[in-house]
Amino acid sequence: MSTANTTNPAGERETPGLPRHIAIILDGNGRWAKRRGLPRTAGHAAGAENFRKIATYCKNIGVEYLTVYAFSTENWKRPEDEVRTIMRLLGRYLHEAIDTMEKDHIRMKVLGDVQGLSPELQALVARTDEISERYEGFQANICLNYGGRSEIVQAARRYAAALAAGQAEELTEEVFGGYLYSAGIPDPDLLIRPGGEQRVSNFLLWQCAYAEFYFTDVLWPDFDTAELDKAIAAYQARDRRYGGVKNP
Ligand code: FPP
């Protein structure tokens, strides 16, 4: 896998090297479990463990940001016990991650409507935010109670409130980006969706304007580092033009 980046005279990356930011829609946990005769919740546990492995690998190879879609604003429609298990797994994950963050100086952010989470989860999110502020380097983002459209609407509301209070700059794409949950995080270069579906499912709608998409039938718990290498190699074979032309 090539990790070199090439830039054009404007300093923008053209021939993709290593993606700076990878986003992943975690899909296929339920089917992974069903194929093994296990409850769906066992698939989510395997999915959470896989996130740990993939995040470590991303950090080791030099990816700067990894953002995963763990729970959407629509996922509350799932059976109550499944939601409860996912929330419990997330709580346990965040709790354990706090130690790792301190030890390995990792930043971790939760992106989404945090107010809609339990007080226990909100406290863990506040703690991860506080630790993240102290470090630089690799950052993992977990999208939780997240929806791309609602993110844009809440950003518009916050901008309007700032404007009404006389505290808003003139509206540009950059200024608007500062009101999104992802403020300060560069846009994803590569969006991966395992699990066989080929749709974006309300994930990072604003941020993925120029992301390269990679779809695979491999289910998320089976999406290992070799699969990630394949996705990165596919990305490196793409020609990113950002709406321009190659050799005008
Ligand atoms: C999609 O698979 C997965 C989810 C909605 C939940 C993902 C949550 C976790 C992996 C738990 C914790 C996560 C982290 C990052 C610590 P699906 O259930 O839709 O699978 P299916 O399409 O096969 O039914």
Description:
By secondary structure, the protein is of the alpha/beta class. It has a single domain (21-149, 187-236), classed as Decaprenyl diphosphate synthase-like (Undecaprenyl pyrophosphate synthetase), CATH 3.40.1180.10. It contains 7 helices and 6 strands. The chain has helices spanning 29-35, 40-61, 80-104, 119-132, 148-164, 173-177, 225-236, and strands at 21-25, 65-72, 107-111, 139-146, 190-193, 212-215. It has a 6-stranded parallel sheet, sandwiched between helices. Strand 3, helix 4 (119-132) and strand 4 form a beta-alpha-beta unit. Helix 1 packs across helix 2 (40-61) and helix 3 (80-104) runs parallel beside helix 4. The model is unreliable at 2-11 (pLDDT under 50). The structure holds farnesyl diphosphate (FPP). Residues 26-31, 44, 47-48, 51, 68, 70-71, 75, 86, 89-90, 93, 142, 195 line the site of farnesyl diphosphate.
